[in-house]
Amino acid sequence: MALYLIGDVQGCDKALQRLLAEVGFSPSRDRFIVLGDLVNRGPQSLAVLRRLMRLEGAAETLLGNHDLHLLAVAAGVRPPHRSDTLETILAAPDRGALLQWLAHRPLALRERGWLLVHAGVLPAWNAAQTLALAAEVEAVLRSPQRDAWLHRMYGNEPAAWDDRLQGEARLRVIVNALTRLRYCTPDGVMEFDTKDGRDGAPPGHVPWFDAPGRRSAGTPIAFGHWSTLGPLQRADLLALDSGCVWGGQLSAARLPDGVEAADARAVEVVRIPCPQAQRPGR
């Protein structure tokens, strides 16, 4: 059974369909996992959600920041952004089922020895702790307290992890790391304003995966979220957001069959070109 990891789709359903055809995906024998940001900015967010729901069992997804934004807009927590393309979902007759399905997606997964996240992992977390902390947020999103939590989810503080954190502050750090992180200080203080590539780190900051002493080092990690990073494929790291919605590419990585983890440099990555769906700028 082939297992594919797919980067940010962001409402580009036609590109997703072409990518699945390109790799010869068959739902009867294969699986794929989208690494978050299923919706928004692209033109077919509703079609993406319906496709993934229909393929459940053969398809899994992580929650990204745009997916959480959809849940927040639907709950009345925030107004839509001018650049959002969520209207068809919010007006759909199956809106309730779609949102309920989305709220039950995980924030992190472990597959064949790989740790899968949308954005990043804080230096203080190992793979097991990352999964456990993700589960704390998942439990709230799947509970009757979801809307109340979404009202308190936004904010950049606390900016660093502390095992003593509790309540909404604890959950906010977890969400921000797993769905928004690009840069942090060497000791794990997050920075959210900079969206440039790896060479654009603000003073005193490094890409999260270059933090010295990172406890998840050695665990292969695949992530999306950072389209300006460009291709990155090193022994324990695989970046798969190749900017489809910005006119870049949509990427799929096939994990080796029957192997628990592997050198990411040997992983086969297939990329297809995407039409320009949004003007440059995020």
From TrEMBL:
<protein>
    <recommendedName>
        <fullName>bis(5'-nucleosyl)-tetraphosphatase (symmetrical)</fullName>
        <ecNumber>3.6.1.41</ecNumber>
    </recommendedName>
</protein>
<keyword id="KW-0378">Hydrolase</keyword>
<dbReference type="InterPro" id="IPR004617">
    <property type="entry name" value="ApaH"/>
</dbReference>
<dbReference type="Pfam" id="PF00149">
    <property type="entry name" value="Metallophos"/>
</dbReference>
<dbReference type="GO" id="GO:0008803">
    <property type="term" value="F:bis(5'-nucleosyl)-tetraphosphatase (symmetrical) activity"/>
</dbReference>
<comment type="function">
    <text>Hydrolyzes diadenosine 5',5'''-P1,P4-tetraphosphate to yield ADP.</text>
</comment>
<dbReference type="InterPro" id="IPR029052">
    <property type="entry name" value="Metallo-depent_PP-like"/>
</dbReference>
<feature type="domain" description="Calcineurin-like phosphoesterase">
    <location>
        <begin position="3"/>
        <end position="152"/>
    </location>
</feature>
<dbReference type="InterPro" id="IPR004843">
    <property type="entry name" value="Calcineurin-like_PHP"/>
</dbReference>
<comment type="similarity">
    <text>Belongs to the Ap4A hydrolase family.</text>
</comment>
